[in-house]
Amino acid sequence: MPTYQYTARDVSGKMVSGEISTLSRFEALSQLHARGLIVTEITDNAISTIVANPNAVMMRFKRWSLRSITLSEKSVFCRQLSISVGSGVPLREALETIAEDMDNRAYQEVLYRVLKRLDDGLTFSQAIANESRAFDRLFVALIKTAEESGSMTETLDYLALSMEKSDRLARKIKSVIAYPIFVACFFVIVSCIMTLFVLPRFQAIFSATGGDLPRLTRIVFAINGFIIFNTVWIFAGIILLITVGVMYGRSAVGRCNIDRLILRLPIVGDIIRKIAVARFCRNLGIMLHGGVPVGSAIEIASGVLGNKSMEKTLRQTRDRIMAGNDIATSLDKKVFPRLVVRMVGVGEASGKLPEVLGKVADVYEDQAEGAIMVAMALIEPLIIVVFGCMILVLVMAVYLPVFSAAGHIR
């Protein structure tokens, strides 16, 4: 049961302080009010410990830093908060209740820090502004607009629906690519066993018996010997390439060039483009529906695409819109399909752009999901054939000398 520290004024006007253990902050306030106390401040001890004690923060961080905040957890939180606020529960109490039941400790500590900032007098949007791990720019911008317009319940509902759809698509993608990844990992393990243990033993046996080996066997043994004798250099080279690639990818120019190259890939690029277009349309529609200005909405929506090349293009689109052009005419035709441009134009003309963007997002999410299913249906047998052929070559390299020796014996 959580413990709360409180400061209150009694019937004589004297300031008193103490602790009270209850199931929730609301119940603590009720019990203190029943005692005739006027509460001026009440804080959860868990929040105080996390915020006031830096050592506790570091200890908890070391313990839970490996646990990330998943999109599924974010969508569940947003739906719980939407239901609670929509049911009339005060925002402060709703956040506290959700935090107490949170399984992810990293997420729980984020909410405790948010609660502490709310106690200090900050608004909800201000309290979550620095918690980018749990609340992205889109979430913060919509909450800020909802606070100004008084549409918190509706905004949270839209956010929850958006996160649930994104999480559903992410789950389908993960389920589809799980099998190819498993096959690839299994092949790597088998290849390592063959290279390090099986082939060297057969090579020693064949060398002891003498005689000419088949060409395929000699080639495989030569490659295997090169890998064994240069294992350190090979691993060093791989690590160096990965390090250089990561450093280049973290730079602004490198990330933009890599993302541009990814978009040009035959199958993967088309899928990523469809997912990015669907995400952009979904987020832009939600923000426009929530009352965020067009310029700010496009800037925020472009920042959460995950593709720096498209983000750069959308910033140019934003500049054209701010110069007085329509959204449809400002969109880059090389990045956005004609259907998107045409539908955006229809939405602008009819005054129903948020609704149209939501429907466009649904269409491209379905297309992306279908493209992923088709790609994986083709890739799975291709992976099996390629890996099977490589294993077959290794097996043939081992058994061809055996068959050749058996033929000579006869």
Spatially, the strands of the biggest sheet line up as 2-1-3
* Rg calculated over all Cα atoms: 30 Å
Distance between the termini: 84 Å
* SSE ordering: EEHEHHHHHHHHHHHHHHHHH
Total domains: 2
Q: What's the number of extended β-strand segments?
A: 3
Task: Explain this structure.
The chain contains 18 helices and 3 strands. By secondary structure, the chain is mainly alpha-helical. The longest helix has 58 residues, at 152-209. Strand 1 (3-9) and strand 2 form a beta hairpin. Residues 47-66 have low confidence and may be disordered. It is extended, with a radius of gyration of 30 Å. The chain has helices at residues 25-34, 45-52, 54-64, 71-86, 91-100, 105-119, 124-128, 137-149, 152-209, 215-229, 231-250, 252-263, 268-290, 294-303, 308-322, 327-330, 338-350, 353-409, and strands at 3-9, 15-21, 38-44.
Keywords:
single chain; 410 residues; mainly alpha; Receptor-associated Protein; 3 strands; extended
Offer a quick outline of the entry.
It contains 18 helices and three strands.
Secondary-structure map:
Elements: E1 3-9, E2 15-21, H1 25-34, E3 38-44, H2 45-52, H3 54-64, H4 71-86, H5 91-100, H6 105-119, H7 124-128, H8 137-149, H9 152-209, H10 215-229, H11 231-250, H12 252-263, H13 268-290, H14 294-303, H15 308-322, H16 327-330, H17 338-350, H18 353-409
Antiparallel strand pairs: 1-2, 1-3
Helix pairs in contact: 2-6, 4-5, 4-9, 5-6, 8-9, 8-13, 9-10, 9-13, 9-18, 10-18, 11-12, 12-15, 13-14, 13-18, 14-15, 17-18
